[in-house]
Amino acid sequence: MKTDARSAAPRRLMDIVHAALFEEIPFNVAVIDRDYNIAAANSSFTDRFGDWQGKKCYEVYKKLHQPCDECPSVQVFETGKTIVADAVGIDQHGKPTHYVGHVAPLRLTEDGPVDYVLEMTRTVTGTRSWQQEYQILFDRVPCYITVIDKDYRIVRANEAFRHSFGDVLNRYCYEVYKRRKSKCPNCPAARTFRDSKVHNSNQVGTDRRGHDVHYQVTTSPLARTGDQVGHVIEISTDVTAVRKLERDVVEVERLAAVGQTVAGLAHSIKNILMGLEGGKYIVSLGLKKGDEEMVNEGWEMVERNFAKTTTLVKDFLSFSKGRLPQLQMVNPATLVNEIVDLYKDITARSGITLRSEIAEHVRRAPLDPDGIHTCLTNLVSNAIDACQMGEQKGSEVVIRVHEKGEKLVFEVADNGCGIDYEIKQKVFTTFFTTKGGEGTGLGLLTTRKIVQEHGGKIVLESEKGQGAHFRMEFPRKRLMTLWREGHGKQSSQTKQVRS
Amino acid sequence: MSVTVLIVDDEPDVARYLAVALRANGYTAVTADSVEHGLKEVHKARPDLICLDIMMPKQSGIAMYTQLKTDKTLRSIPVIFISGVGHEDPWDFRSFVSDESIPPPELFLEKPIDAELFVDSIEQLIASTRAHQERTDK
């Protein structure tokens, strides 16, 4: 009795459990007979699809009047095996509902035929729409996204990437991005596979049309915490247009400098012509008057201006030597110290203090040392002249170098006579000189040209009587672009020579 | 009555050339190599006309022109700007002097200058200035 009582109690308990499971399980559960009739369904199913009593499954699931073309239940009745099904039906409110689940056979006798099928499905409409949104985002986001496996094969690629690089699935990433036959050196994905960390890198690849593509790539691990990285996701931003724009800006500045230089040359020549015209006039007037002294005076004027022409032509030829800066990794402080050494005796003799201010942590930079030497020489020489023209005592010229944000900055400041507003406007635009008959006005133009060739700019701050302050600013990003391009050119030239 | 012309130019050859051309044509020419010197000569020589270079060290010709035109006693003296910057170049007086109360110069001559043309221009400018003064006096 005890045994019967003990065995009866569990049976009742299991019945209760089964009944509760049937009702409470967070799935839509329905039992279907061979004639598509719904024999039983739980509350989750009823809540989703509405009243089912006395109705066919296709009427309830899909609001149809005849069985579906590919009915999973029919398949289970035929095979007697459980299958996974995935379908879109219509809920009781008329809205499409996506459901996925198992369809299993139910037999009333152990070895008998399949009498019913048990459909246990889960509504995935929300998940499905999230997946669609994710897919749209993945495809339409304006950057390249690829997922690569440990063999560096691309297992997923978004639309933007496929558009630029073609059909890429299962191909090696180095083959697709760079048309290489082996892994790239300094591969950021390799680093991510190694250390499971995010890495960034600037790269140049080749698209399916053979055009260069500049991109900034971020590689991230695709793995749960603690797991080994099985895949790496590469997100790249195409910066080709930005790189082109950067080059164009430098080019436009170069061309503008050429235009202003030509106008400035004309201006300078006019002044010399005026001197020659004057000499010629005084010579003829002296000849007419029989005044030998006047003839001599006029002739000297002709000779002086002739000599000026020679100087101008020499300066101009030196100025017009169009060349790319010969960049070397140099310490900016060394360049400043060289200039101080060069001018310390001259300034000491003139009673001018020359000193340098070199900020701590000034980093090495790719610069043309000869070019920067010329710039600093021109600016310091001008500053010394300004101090000599000025009236105040205690004249001083300071050469500074420091980092300002992402810029390397050289400054030459003096407390000489200063430059007033009108002159400041002209100072970089013509062959303008404040040195009377002595200068050709090319120093500042040459300086500006060299600075622009480095992708930098030169700024003048000056007030009359307050001294002048020239600042040469070199964005480090631009210097690095020139440095990389210079190296690229050198290596392609080497290749040509070798081939 | 002799006409006195003040030439302010830091280029000694230019100043000498213009002075010789003026003297050869009966004018009295006074030269100055800077604005500072030029302003002293304005008060000393009381010129009938001033020829002014634009680009000069320390102070430019524009600075001197502004001082002349803002001084009640000097503003009536006609001024000729003489510069290597040509009319066809984007030389715009207002880009140098934005103050509209300061009038543009009477004449602008582009270097190099032919002596004959220079003297003719001076002659015409003096004549028209005198005619204007006579009309004003009446």
Mean pLDDT of chain B: 87
Largest sheet of chain A: 5 strands, antiparallel
> Which structural category fits the helices and strands of chain A?
alpha+beta
CATH architecture of chain B: 3-Layer(aba) Sandwich
> What would you report as the Rg of chain A, rounded to the nearest angstrom?
42 Å
Any idea what the CATH superfamily of the largest domain in chain A is called? Histidine kinase-like ATPase, C-terminal domain
Annotation field: number of helices of chain A = 15
Note the main attributes of this structure:
heterodimer, A: 499 residues, alpha+beta, Beta-Lactamase, 4 domains, disordered C terminus, B: 138 residues, alpha/beta, Rossmann fold, 5 strands
Describe the protein's architecture and organization.
- Chain A is α+β, with helices and mostly antiparallel strands and 499 residues long.
- Chain A folds into four domains: 2-123, 2-Layer Sandwich (Beta-Lactamase); 141-238, PAS domain (Beta-Lactamase, 2-Layer Sandwich), CATH 3.30.450; 241-322; 325-499, Histidine kinase-like ATPase, C-terminal domain (Heat Shock Protein 90).
- Chain A is 48% helix and 23% strand.
- Chain A has 15 helices and 17 strands.
- In chain A, the strands form four sheets. In chain A, strands 2-1-5-4-3 form a five-stranded antiparallel beta sheet, with helices on both faces. In chain A, strands 7-6-10-9-8 form a five-stranded antiparallel beta sheet. A five-stranded mixed beta sheet of chain A has the order 12-14-15-17-16.
- In chain A, helix 9 (240-289) packs antiparallel against helix 10, helix 9 packs antiparallel against helix 14 (442-453) and helix 11 runs parallel beside helix 12 (369-389).
- The longest helix of chain A has 50 residues, at 240-289.
- Residues 1-6, 429-440 and 490-499 of chain A have low confidence and may be disordered.
- In chain B, helix 1 (12-24) packs across helix 5.
- Classes of the chains: A alpha+beta (499), B alpha/beta (138).
